Amino acid sequence: QVQLVESGGGLVQAGGSLRLSCAASGGIVSNYAMAWFRQAPGKERVLVASITWTSGSTSYADSVKGRFTISRDNAKNTLYLQMSSLKPEDTGVYYCAAGVTYGRAWSPEYRYWGQGTQVTVSS
């Protein structure tokens, strides 16, 4: 019943920008936090950025600090990831996630996942 639908991925040259969106539905309006994960080819899925829904507190992986910005629109139940100065190593499938217990926003313990959107950064 909980649905997360990502959009906005694509092919971009190094140095370019993309904005990912994740539309949430199905009873997670009071969700504590949401996050973006990335899975590169042949690698494990890693946490990229998280945000608490009420206070808007954010956290970022060191590899994306200063380049990516996570945000949310509470009224639209939508999560965003603005990605700038993209590098080839940012390539991967980006997943939106929700449904984590209080205090665990920066963790892999999310229960709900979107289907993922592919981001490819060419050099």
What does the average pLDDT come to?
94
- N- to C-terminal separation? 40 Å
Shape summary:
globular
Instruction: Output the number of helix runs.
Output: 0
Descriptive notes:
- The protein is globular and about 40 Å long.
- Helices cover 0% and strands 50% of the residues.
- By secondary structure, the protein is mainly β.
- The model has no long low-confidence stretch (mean pLDDT 94).
What does this entry show, briefly?
The protein has 123 residues and is mostly beta strands. Helices cover 0% and strands 50% of the residues. Strands 2, 4, 5, 6, 9, 10 and 11 form a seven-stranded mixed beta sheet that branches.
Helices, strands, pairings?
Elements (H helix, E strand, L loop, with lengths): L2 E5 L2 E4 L4 E8 L7 E7 L5 E8 L5 E3 L7 E6 L4 E6 L8 E7 L13 E2 L3 E6 L1
Parallel strand pairs: 2-11
Antiparallel strand pairs: 1-3, 3-8, 4-5, 4-9, 5-6, 7-8, 9-10, 9-11
What key attributes describe this structure?
single chain, 123 residues, mainly beta, seven-stranded mixed β-sheet, four-stranded antiparallel β-sheet, 0% helix, 50% strand, globular
